[in-house]
Design goal:
The chain is mainly alpha-helical and 201 residues long. It is built from eleven helices and no strands. It has two domains: 124 residues, Serine Threonine Protein Phosphatase 5, Tetratricopeptide repeat (Alpha Horseshoe), CATH 1.25.40.10; 59 residues, Winged helix-like DNA-binding domain superfamily/Winged helix DNA-binding domain (Arc Repressor Mutant, subunit A, Orthogonal Bundle). The longest helix has 18 residues. The radius of gyration is 21 Å and the shape is elongated. The model has no long low-confidence stretch (mean pLDDT 83).
Length: 201
């Protein structure tokens, strides 16, 4: 149901999102501080934020955070911390940074790369230092690992395309993905990374 709330909000249907959040709140009525109540609080926070009620959104997020923390759901707790950081970004940037850093540490520990990237972007938008090292090392696909090896050998995109029997456009796409996942700006950074990896092997 919480996912349905977010989907309605993505489609700019606040009325449908509000109705879905209310149904979830009804389901949570007898939950006694469990998972359903935590999800209901999170959903209500999304609706409040979309409806221009930041104080209510913050209160609901704090409630969801408390519940998920007590339930020992680290991923859900980190997601709520990220949302709380977003909600605090205007009124309390220092608190937002603290919440975002806590969320980032959990996402990185759990290997939730996409969420870690989103949190890193929020930290940077708040003027705080984000991650300084590679963002997604270890999640290169097999093809991207092959491309990295060939980039490390100094091959150009057309040469990589020829070697792997793929189009130049596909080769360029793979190289771009590799650079993004390694958190480097150019091929030189990728070559340096590939060289370090080869030395370690």
């Amino acid at each position: 149901m919480e996912t349905l709330v977010v989907a309605h909000l993505t489609l700019d249907d606040l009325a449908a999102a509000t109705e879905a959040a209310a149904r979830l709140a009804e389901l949570a009525g007898g939950d006694g501080g469990g998972q359903v109540e935590a999800l209901a609080a999170s959903a209500a926070a999304h609706v409040a934020r979309a409806g221009g009620r930041p104080d209510e959104a913050r209160r609901r997020l704090e409630r969801a955070l408390d519940l998920f923390s007590r339930l020992d759901f680290p991923y859900e707790t980190a997601l709520v911390r990220l949302e709380l950081a977003r909600a605090l970004s205007d009124s309390g940037p220092e608190l937002a940074v603290a919440e975002a850093r806590s969320a980032l540490a959990t996402f990185e520990r759990l290997g939730a790369a996409g969420d870690a990237d989103a949190t890193d972007a929020l930290l940077r938008s708040l003027g705080a230092a984000g991650r300084t090292g590679p963002k997604r090392v270890g999640v290169l696909t097999r093809r991207e690992q092959e491309v990295l090896r060939l980039v490390g050998q100094g091959l150009s995109n057309p040469e990589i395309a020829q070697r792997l029997f793929i189009s130049r456009k596909t080769a360029a796409h793979h190289v771009s993905n590799v650079l993004a996942k390694l958190g480097v700006r150019n091929r030189a950074g990728a070559i340096a990374y590939a060289t370090r990896q080869a030395d370690q092997d």
